[in-house]
Design goal:
The protein is α+β, with helices and mostly antiparallel strands. The chain is built from 7 helices and 6 strands. It starts with 15 loop residues before the first helix and ends with a helix.
Length: 157
């Protein structure tokens, strides 16, 4: 059995939210994407993001891992403590702002997919998320530029 991801938020199978999603939880368990311990606590396999998940399965996995997401872009998620809580390709720690920044520098879609091992769906959703959440992504890019500028200033001293 694969090693499981540790979580800060622990859900048990008898949690009311999860109890309503027992069918999805069971499908994930049968595919060895989640584990259920004797004490009814649930753990998630690190390989879960490499698998195709239906909407209900994805909701269960994201909730278990503490992700927030926009249902229109299910392959893009946010999680406190990962990439600064910014929008990223789920399970990859690849922020949307970075994809957008490279696209602006002239990277073609095929280059972006090859560079980061993205599927066409992941790239499409990242760029769609960026268009729909333009202000958020622009702020993320600006924050990164400021950080890089400060680091360069400190290094120059």
């Amino acid at each position: 059995m694969p090693k499981r991801v540790k979580r800060i938020t622990i859900y048990r199978t008898d949690h009311p939210w999860l109890a309503e999603r027992q069918a999805a939880l069971e499908r994930l368990r049968r595919r060895d994407l989640v584990g259920v311990a004797r004490d009814k606590s649930v753990s998630v396999s690190p390989g879960v993001f490499a698998e195709r998940l239906d909407a209900e399965e994805r909701e269960v996995v994201y909730k278990l891992l503490g992700y927030a997401w926009d249902r229109r872009y299910p392959l893009i998620a946010k999680r406190a403590g990962m990439v600064g809580g910014r929008a990223a390709v789920a399970g990859r720690r690849l922020p949307v702002w970075q994809i957008v920044g490279l696209e602006r520098q002239g990277y073609a879609p095929a280059q972006l997919m090859a560079e980061f091992g993205l599927s066409p769906d992941e790239l499409h959703q990242a760029l769609g998320y960026a268009r729909r959440h333009r202000e958020e992504i622009e702020q993320d890019i600006l924050d990164q530029e400021r950080s890089a500028s400060l680091l360069a200033e400190v290094a120059a001293r």
